[in-house]
Amino acid sequence: MPQAYEERLAGEPCLRLAPSVPHELLCNRLHAWVRAALPPNSTLHLLPRRTAVALPGGDRVCPDLALTHAADGRLYLAVEVLQPGDHHCDTVVKKELYLDHRLPRLWIVDSRYHNVEVYGTGEYGFRLEHILASQDRLTDSALSGFERSMDDLFAKPCP
């Protein structure tokens, strides 16, 4: 059973709610799909869900899914799966931290609206590249062959 956990965001402790069953289902799917798309010789490493990742300046984030550069542990991709009542930390505070640290890729998964916001880092900071829904397909250039529809991501579990 998932438990509550703590992050350090903008210098302040932030207690996070224990993830719900639907939240964990989305995390399971994303982890399985990303793991399957990583080649054996990948320069990226998939961390276990909500592994604490230290950021310069003393902040500590626990993304639902994180890909780091194998050589130096820097974050390449953070995925935040939103839960009702627990959005502010992910959509405001952590997004700002990721921007400050020039995270190359950020996916924000919102089960309320069955969509994924895909951000990349550009010359002037984060840029919203896509808002994916329905039959739109989630891809990433670092994950060869990774392509999943939003309908697959948000599908109900089999009974």
Please describe what this structure looks like.
- The protein is an alpha+beta fold and 159 residues long.
- It has a single domain, classed as tt1808, chain A (Alpha-Beta Complex).
- 21% of the residues lie in helices and 37% in strands.
- It contains three helices and twelve strands.
- The strands form four sheets. It has a six-stranded mixed sheet. A two-stranded antiparallel sheet has the order 1-2.
- The longest helix is centred in the N-terminal third of the chain and has 17 residues, at 21-37.
- The protein starts with a strand and ends in a 6-residue tail after the last helix.
Keywords:
single chain, 159 residues, alpha+beta, tt1808, chain A, 6-stranded mixed beta sheet, two-stranded antiparallel ribbon, 3 helices, 12 strands, 21% helix, globular
Quick structural summary:
The chain is of the alpha+beta class. Helix content is 21%, strand content 37%. Strands 3-6-7-8-9-10 form a six-stranded mixed β-sheet. A two-stranded antiparallel ribbon has the order 1-2. Strands 4-5 form a two-stranded antiparallel sheet.
Helix-strand blueprint:
Blueprint: E1 5-9, E2 12-16, H1 21-37, E3 44-47, E4 53-54, E5 60-61, E6 65-69, E7 75-81, H2 88-100, E8 105-110, E9 115-122, E10 125-133, E11 137-139, E12 147-149, H3 150-153
Parallel strand pairs: 7-8
Antiparallel strand pairs: 1-2, 3-6, 4-5, 6-7, 8-9, 9-10, 11-12
